[in-house]
Description:
It is a single chain. The protein is of the alpha/beta class. It has two domains: about 10-185, Rossmann fold (3-Layer(aba) Sandwich), CATH 3.40.50.1950; about 195-400, Rossmann fold (3-Layer(aba) Sandwich). The chain contains 13 helices and 22 strands. Strand 7 and strand 8 form a beta hairpin. The longest helix is centred in the C-terminal third of the chain and has 16 residues, at about 385-400. The two termini are about 20 Å apart. The protein binds cytidine-5'-triphosphate. Cytidine-5'-triphosphate binds near residues 277, 310, 312 and 341.
Amino acid sequence: MSILRDKNILLGVSAGIAAYKTASLVRLFIKAGAQVQVVMTPASKDFVTPLTLSTLSKNPVFSSFYDEQDENAVWNNHVELALWADIMIIAPATANTLAKMVSGDCDNLLIATYLSAKCPVYIAPAMDLDMYKHPSTIHSLQSLTSFGNLIIPAESGELASGLSGEGRMAEPENIVDFITKDLEGQSPLLNKKFLITAGPTYEAIDPVRFIGNHSSGKMGFEIAEAAARLGAQVVLVSGPTNCKASDTLIKVIPVVSAEEMYMVCHQYFYEADVMIASAAVADYRPKNIADQKIKKQEETLNIELIKNKDILQSLGAIKEKQFLVGFALETENEIANAKAKIKKKNLDLIVLNSLQDAGAGFGVDTNKVTFIDKDGQIETLPLKSKEAVANDLIAKIIDTIL
Ligand code: CTP
């Protein structure tokens, strides 16, 4: 599977002869499973037609802030376009466009979109060899690099001028290759499979009542997002929650009870490389679920509970290659209890939540945790957002397994 699959790619085309090659470039992006939108400088339309690129990208092509010929013209919103993009690639980037990108000289839609982009921007320069070697161009490329943009070096060969040398835009295949390799480098968990549990479980008492807990699911969803951001394919088994997963690499499987969570986890565990149990699973469930709503009668009501299976422990008992992470919520003898849980459940790492810390635990956006690994190494983190804790946990796992 290409890492470009499902990516939103914004292609900016400026006025160089190499613009004709952008037709192939759009094709390659589409073939890799990406969505493509194209922004052109007005002059680039002399080298390749918007119709060619709109047909290949299956999207309208934009080259001005609005269509001057259309009385009912709508504003082509460069900010929206830029925010839509997961990556932006400017190819070909002429000396003129490079200089404008450096100075912020925003007289066309392409530059305005570039200045609005928050995503990674790749630049494929294309010009004649002496222009490419000119200190002015070198200065532009150095400045753009210092802005955090990535330059896809021009290639050597025959140039449109008839001269031969460096300056030719990288071939479309090489541009795709460059971007793919760069994204893969930023995705250390590419092709790794994560199984994560999140949220509470609800244990039915009768058709309308249940035993549950206050877990929001936020910690588990943040962990799933953090893993997916680094390329992991995530199966997220979640009890009832309002959280939503935004990354397409996350497959959410909603469950209600501990029994259901147990079954789904066992279904996906064999193919997982990493399993993280952040769910607040109910330890007990009603022994019998009443068929009808229980009517109020006596002054007291006893509900007999039986123990749920411990999902994490059952996975620890059968684990082979999987890296297993558990959570522990302790109120006393925290470290000793957490260490005992590592042994009992055959874990590689445990994330200890202490209820003694203000700002940590259920329903809040922050958490204070301690990581303890199976060798007894302890790392206590300060109070952080759940997103930051999730990033730290994933970084810790990467450090250990890669
Ligand atoms: N867990 C699980 N299945 C259960 C209970 C817990 O998978 N039936 C997982 C949780 O997701 C968490 C870890 O086990 O990762 C620790 O759960 P916790 O409730 O802190 O500890 P317990 O093992 O239940 O022990 P105790 O209640 O005695 O503290």
